[in-house]
Amino acid sequence: MTGTVSEHAAAPAGADLVAAYRTMRTIRAFEDRVHEEFATGDIPGFVHLYAGEEASAVGVCVHLDDRDSIASTHRGHGHCIAKGVDVKAMMAEIFGRRTGSCNGKGGSMHIADLSKGMLGANGIVGGGPPLICGTALAGKLAGNGAVSVAFFGDGASNQGTTLEAMNLASVWNLPAVFVAENNGYAEATASRWSVASDNIADRAAGFGMPGVIVDGFDFFAVHEAAGEAVARARDGGGPTLIEVKLTRYYGHFEGDQQTYRGDEVARARQGLDCLARFRARVTETGQVSGDRLDVVDAEVAALIEDAARAARAAAKPSEVDLETDVYVSY
Amino acid sequence: MTGTVSEHAAAPAGADLVAAYRTMRTIRAFEDRVHEEFATGDIPGFVHLYAGEEASAVGVCVHLDDRDSIASTHRGHGHCIAKGVDVKAMMAEIFGRRTGSCNGKGGSMHIADLSKGMLGANGIVGGGPPLICGTALAGKLAGNGAVSVAFFGDGASNQGTTLEAMNLASVWNLPAVFVAENNGYAEATASRWSVASDNIADRAAGFGMPGVIVDGFDFFAVHEAAGEAVARARDGGGPTLIEVKLTRYYGHFEGDQQTYRGDEVARARQGLDCLARFRARVTETGQVSGDRLDVVDAEVAALIEDAARAARAAAKPSEVDLETDVYVSY
Amino acid sequence: MARSISYREAIGEALRQEMRRDERVVVMGEDIAGGAGAPGADDAWGGVMGVTSGLFGEFPGRVLDTPISESAFIGAAIGAATRGLRPVAELMFMDFMGVCFDQIFNQAAKFRYMFGGKAVTPVVIRTMYGAGLRAAAQHSQSLYSIFTHVPGLKVVTPSSPYDAKGLLIAAIRDDDPVIFCEHKAMYDVVGEVPEDSYALPFGEADVVREGSDVTVVAIGRMVSVAGQAAERLAAEGVSVEIVDPRTLSPLDTETILDSVENTGRLVVVDEATPRCSMATDISALVAREGFGSLRAPIEMVTAPHTPVPFSDALEDLYVPDAQRVANAVKTTVGYQR
Amino acid sequence: MARSISYREAIGEALRQEMRRDERVVVMGEDIAGGAGAPGADDAWGGVMGVTSGLFGEFPGRVLDTPISESAFIGAAIGAATRGLRPVAELMFMDFMGVCFDQIFNQAAKFRYMFGGKAVTPVVIRTMYGAGLRAAAQHSQSLYSIFTHVPGLKVVTPSSPYDAKGLLIAAIRDDDPVIFCEHKAMYDVVGEVPEDSYALPFGEADVVREGSDVTVVAIGRMVSVAGQAAERLAAEGVSVEIVDPRTLSPLDTETILDSVENTGRLVVVDEATPRCSMATDISALVAREGFGSLRAPIEMVTAPHTPVPFSDALEDLYVPDAQRVANAVKTTVGYQR
Ligand SMILES: Cc1ncc(C[n+]2csc(CCOP(=O)(O)OP(=O)(O)O)c2C)c(N)n1
Ligand SMILES: Cc1ncc(C[n+]2csc(CCOP(=O)(O)OP(=O)(O)O)c2C)c(N)n1
Ligand SMILES: [Mg+2]
Ligand SMILES: [Mg+2]
Fold this sequence. Notes:
The complex is a heterotetramer, with 2 copies of chain A and 2 copies of chain C. By secondary structure, chain A is an alpha/beta fold. Chain A has helices at residues 5-9, 14-39, 54-61, 77-82, 87-94, 128-142, 160-171, 191-194, 219-234, 264-272, 274-284, 290-313, 319-322, and strands at residues 69-71, 148-153, 176-182, 185-186, 189-190, 211-215, 240-245. Chain A has a 5-stranded parallel beta sheet with strand order 1-2-3-7-6, with helices on both faces. Chain A has a two-stranded antiparallel ribbon with strand order 4-5. In chain A, strand 6 (211-215), helix 9 (219-234) and strand 7 form a beta-alpha-beta unit. By secondary structure, chain C is an alpha/beta fold. Chain C is built from 11 helices and 14 strands. Chain C has helices at 7-21, 55-58, 70-81, 101-114, 144-149, 161-173, 222-235, 253-263, 278-289, 312-318, 322-333, and strands at 4-6, 25-29, 63-65, 86-93, 124-129, 154-156, 178-183, 190-192, 206-209, 214-218, 240-244, 247-249, 266-269, 299-301. In chain C, the strands form 3 sheets. Chain C has a 7-stranded mixed beta sheet with strand order 3-2-4-5-7-6-12, with helices on both faces. Chain C has a 5-stranded mixed beta sheet with strand order 9-11-10-13-14, sandwiched between helices. In chain C, strands 1-8 form a two-stranded antiparallel ribbon. In chain C, strand 2 (25-29), helix 2 and strand 3 (63-65) form a beta-alpha-beta unit. In chain C, helix 1 (7-21) packs parallel to helix 6, helix 3 packs parallel to helix 4 (101-114) and helix 7 crosses helix 11. The chains are: A alpha/beta, C alpha/beta. Chains C and D meet through helix 4, helix 5 and helix 9 of C and helix 4, helix 5 and helix 9 of D. One thiamine diphosphate sits between chains B (48, 73-75, 123-126, 153-156, 183, 185-187, 252) and D (30, 68, 70, 92, 96, 99).
């Protein structure tokens, strides 16, 4: 189950590459579609899209399997997909349907699938890091090599719950990885203002763990850093903090006018995009052909089309669902 | 009002030395007396004594005046005395009398004197650091050079509220000083276990401020570090984290059997005691005579005797006090 | 007072007028201006709902963005209040109280009593509550009962733009900590609001509608729901008196008891979950002090004892509506001992 | 069941027996063993009240000291519960809920509903409440009404060593999050407790004393205070029935309503502050569903709407005592419509 650092950090090849690409593409297509559907007014509530950040979720989660757990954020679709949550159920959930991952009771901010070790998107900034200390403890006591990962944003890196969790993970020497997704903003507030240190990774030392910074547009960079951290955790070496620097392509939530931003998004989309870079690298090295990736793109497009249609067609929950599932027994 | 770093950090002399010694001695005598009185069973509730840590409260607070604010902890008597709270009123408070600092409604864990900028001992570990961000903000907006200081323990350094407050103080560039009193334990738990970094001061970098470590048995070392930090804060240079390493002489609270400890206390009392070291230094250098300090000791002893007698003799609050002072108006 | 503005604008105007009047008033919160440290606009948001839009430019240094550190900045507002400022801190969604409740209930609420009456903590915490926007379980709660349970806090739930302005001005001038609860589905509700500054007293309920058969005490957004029910019932010949407490702590018990004395019947409408709620609080008040006038069981119309569901289909069933209020009124009117 | 042990020992025994029975049970908290990393004893404290004393040695790796990071370790207990463990976390004083409430009420309480019934979170949070030890405003509160207000939580308030053991065992076996409230002034109370393991069902009130004139519903430590009052009143010819709900959520409404149906009168005794409290909750229940049987106003005996004072002189006036309960009973018995 566990392995050496180098083994885990080795760059993926062949089918793994295609799989990683497929997951990233699925996230992108899913989010682009939610963006469009939201504009029609048919999606209730508000949604926070992950487009642009795909290399982070996927670069981390390819190292994980179902015994491993992750906690996510309000911007959770990408983490869900990367951890294997059913895409059609997710889309239905976002539309508030009975067929959704949570029977329509959770919505975008609460998609979860415990059977996949996905502890839920989370409406509370900083809600997830404490939780993964617990799943990591469960893994540690079970002795099954299970690792737990908390994804959180630059804004969440200032929440006390996140900071406490890092210390606890070190004190208990837990198999945990803390992934700070620094997309430069918490809502409209710049991380270079709200995070008093130069980097979020600078906080690792204060909690007795290694801290690393990676380029979040580069799947392979994330993959390598996460591979080392996951391997260290599986081997009993304790937690790591990884700061992933990236950009979100859409507003904080759908509807955000984004007057606080410069032209980062345009620049990132053109020069840095994780999917474009991934494609360029694997085709240039000849590891995967462009045709193969085109097929993936088409398959993904069909899947998302299907998911959206099915979601729209599905029934909403009804009165009988209102008061069920508050307790196991009461 | 403000001055250069070196000016503020200059070692005190003459009357200032005697005054600092008097304050430290007052804290020691106060705590020793509370220890004795508690054993009689006449003090209600529980008390946490500061004996052994005097150089910290006094080494910091000699740099402060009434416009400056401090927040304290459950172990607050020393901070109160160092910030000028009336000793007789404090003793009466601890005995639950109407003449106490809080009319007997607060007790040991809630002694406060807002007129002295003493925001209260605090029953909540980590309760104080957020509060001093606010008093520091008030000082900053008033432009009066006022500085705010949070005292907190090694245990409190793991509380999210403390960590958040440090970041906020940096982000807002507040005139604040964070004083982590690392006495080696939070209750029975060793700080070398609960604090995942080697030193609490190591956390400063993660919050964009300087972190320094000082010997808390040495009044002059604390004085110097605090002088620099206070001066920097007054000059608009932002917050500092000072870790003061010291030992508490009594148990966590009165009644604690302390089976978790080694012989640190005996060693500290014999070789490191802040009062003994202070006396040795100032008498050896001829700055203050031993006789002068003996007079101070006698005066302090008389004051404490007086405070304890008066407290015992004072009336307790009564039914008319029960429901008053919940609100200013209701 | 012919001018009509929205609940959102009324709150913004209260803040602006008080900030002009008293330079000790400062506001702080996450993106309360918005754009701190960012390359674009410095006041890009004016709060997540645009309530504080425009203040940043007018009051330099007194509109403070914060990191996402509710304990730290709510605590800072409280600390600042003990040192002469009159801060208005925004806790964006009331649901986020769980990450900073200690500063509110153990610090701000207790200072005055714990310190023997020697502290004054004039802080206002503005916060958004309520269901209806499909914001799901962690962004839709009505948690004012929790704050009302805590001695030392005052709790305000304005139900109209007029009340919102007057009560917020009163809150800012008040010397005690105030939890100012804004219903998130009401920001666009428009009503007549005087341009001049005015403060509405705490602890004075508003008899929104007079009637003789049943007293309906309704809170916040439920006041308008009760109004719709009363209209329908009037057509059926049932005369409903609606009392809006406006402040939950202090509570104007007298107006409620007087009303029940006249009508003999009580329905409490509270969009919060039912257990240990304002609905039970007012029920218990009347069962204790108004028992002699009661001619029927006290009915409560509340959310069910469940989290707030996401799907619009469920949320619409979750929040009390005029039909449920009307049914409860009819139950109490039709009661035979 | 001739053996008598203390409330403290009963709780410790429940933990020990469950830990022996089920290795998924782990306990965690500040100094729950005590002495982590210290040169002396590894299990120096067994919790601040000695409740967990001795567990550390018997269950290696399953008794975890924590840093003072309530959000992190309460959250960890919750997270662990979603992955197969059955953690019992100690929140030392209930008053500390303010630094970790989010994990309890927005995470643990809501997982099952938010996730469409697909989560199970079998976590127990043991916590100490109540006044009487001169521990002042931040260490003496009775905040169970706040937890009861929250759907998704179960709330337990054992009033005797027997109930403490049986209810804690039930809590550990329960698949929902449970807030287990231990009264700090009861740890030395002794009572008969079977040595064998047993679980007491949730939602079943205990009719502690039968009587015919007045129903007194009393919570936690107030059950014994009500008992003293009942003794005195019996001498005066007033027959009091005492109902101990034992669990506040779920609440056994049937037993309470049945009792009031027989007696026609209700007094609720709750040591918490009065607003939006269990006292109002039970009052409202009866005013709604038991109105037909009521012959007098519902009385509440509670703490005043103030923080808990420090001085023994004041705290003794603060906490409801037998005299106040007896007075309330007499008021209701003497009521003339
Ligand atoms: C405790 C809490 N405070 C505030 C919010 C409101 N809020 C939701 S997302 C967000 C910004 C989060 O920023 P970041 O952590 O950087 O994540 P990103 O949105 O950039 O992915 C804020 C302030 C919240 N949901 N929870
Ligand atoms: C939020 C909170 N958690 C736990 C406690 C209980 N408690 C009181 S003092 C203490 C230890 C504090 O240790 P430290 O901060 O090192 O201060 P010291 O006692 O050593 O001065 C604990 C756990 C508390 N009062 N508040
Ligand atoms: Mg961000
Ligand atoms: Mg300590």
